[in-house]
């Protein structure tokens, strides 16, 4: 039986032994095997790949508490600015490594490569002699780990996680991977995604005696594994995952196995690679494989469970195959690094083509094309090349600014944006400028950027956005505002243009995006653009104060991290989350 050793600053509380009970699985359509076996060759409980191993996550209610025009609790001296928050936020990234004597150090490097997916917490669980050892901490990967911490994580198997907290302060207890002990040993898990039936599952578990130590939906998975009667451990994971709804790309570790799981829709990415010594690597993006010199082999297919151990190598089985995956399109628009392959496509090429489409469908006479760094750069390059106009660095981004900065007593307008972005007057002055950005969420940052460029002397400013208008909130692992806070859900393109203050504004046409994706188009989720949700959430997503509201013990369930509350009686959730409800049904 595997033991657990926790090396972080607060102890890990194992899940108690619980009486078993039956959870009703959510109603599902009968699933069939993927019709296109060349794209998704996931077959139930049969496919086995042997390999040799060397021993070796209306108005914003939070605005009532902290109105945007008022100072924070620290007054005017300490400014906690949120200009950079006017983007959707990926909530985490995961890594798993099996069969390498330096598994924890490779995991550490891979998490560095995934740092863009989460900056508020990081952790690693390593397995040595059937003992799970944990180091977690709040902050960047480089702040959480050092040589001595990594020396405490020996072994040939490890999983890691980087986390983005949606609001409020991050707390160590919510930093993954989570480790729990139960009657058959110990298990660690790292999760990227969001469970839309989390509250219902947690309530059922608590009614039957489960005690929760965190405010994360990931802990539900550990409880479901602990109470499952299925054998062996692999089937306990399958049994637990059959009760989950929503997005999850997860890696598990036990005393002798590494397991990777992806939800049937494949919302969030998860890839598999292999190092030259035979070690198997799982990661959220291929950029993590590149850094540790692992060769990309393939994606973990939607609905697939991959199990790695020394006895059988890599085994694959189907969890719940679904005929039509719904992969997150925003991975290609914003989240993933340009050097990654995501869902089998080059992120760089996708963004370059987005820019070309904008140049073709929304041309304008201009002298220079610039990008809002860093996420708008590749699309701007595509726009400039197609338009035959020079691309230049008109905005310089500072990479050394934290979340909080001391502001002088004399207020500086657009302080947060000015700290992060500096206009280059020599590029902008007297010019007709096309500014390419990846998306507009609330519109607040875009208006400040336009103002910065005007102050630098630009003659005209034409905004080109390399995504369709965002009209719906995400429920599948991305932190986005509520639908009523999204500017494209409240205003027309012309109204947004006036609000931002630019001379012209154009978004990537939705139909052109789907046409560019060609035969892959049906495999993507466009809920944020269309309001049509592949998995209808059971709870309403609202913005809350976040982790700072919850100590995990004595606050209401409605305040947990994840921001889900139950709707009132006779509440029509579908109409609430889809402002274009009637149109989407046509």
TrEMBL record:
The record's annotation in SUPFAM superfamilies points to:
N-terminal nucleophile aminohydrolases (Ntn hydrolases), PRTase-like
EC number(s) reported in the record: 2.4.2.14
- Membrane-crossing ranges are none
Q: What class of enzyme is it?
A: transferase
* Domain Glutamine amidotransferase type-2, chain residue ranges per copy: 92-311
Molecular functions per Gene Ontology: amidophosphoribosyltransferase activity; iron-sulfur cluster binding
Where is the stretch described as Disordered?
A: 1-21, 60-87
Q: Which cofactor does it need?
A: [4Fe-4S] cluster
PROSITE patterns named in the record: GATASE_TYPE_2
One Pfam family cited in the UniProt record for this chain: GATase_7
Q: Tell me the pathway.
A: Purine metabolism; IMP biosynthesis via de novo pathway; N(1)-(5-phospho-D-ribosyl)glycinamide from 5-phospho-alpha-D-ribose 1-diphosphate: step 1/2
- Spell out the InterPro entries in the cross-references: GATase_2_dom (IPR017932), Ntn_hydrolases_N (IPR029055), PRTase-like (IPR029057), PRTase_dom (IPR000836), PurF (IPR005854), PurF_N (IPR035584)
Q: Which GO terms describe its biological process?
A: 'de novo' IMP biosynthetic process; purine nucleobase biosynthetic process
**CDD domains found in the cross-reference section:** GPATase_N, PRTases_typeI
Q: Which UniProt keywords apply?
A: Glutamine amidotransferase, Glycosyltransferase, Iron, Iron-sulfur, Metal-binding, Purine biosynthesis, Transferase
Q: Which domain of life is it from?
A: Eukaryota
Recorded catalytic reaction(s): these are: 5-phospho-beta-D-ribosylamine + L-glutamate + diphosphate = 5-phospho-alpha-D-ribose 1-diphosphate + L-glutamine + H2O
PANTHER family per the UniProt record, alphabetical: AMIDOPHOSPHORIBOSYLTRANSFERASE
Similarity-based family: In the C-terminal section; belongs to the purine/pyrimidine phosphoribosyltransferase family.
* Name the UniProt record assigns to this protein: amidophosphoribosyltransferase
Whose protein is this, by species? Gossypium lobatum
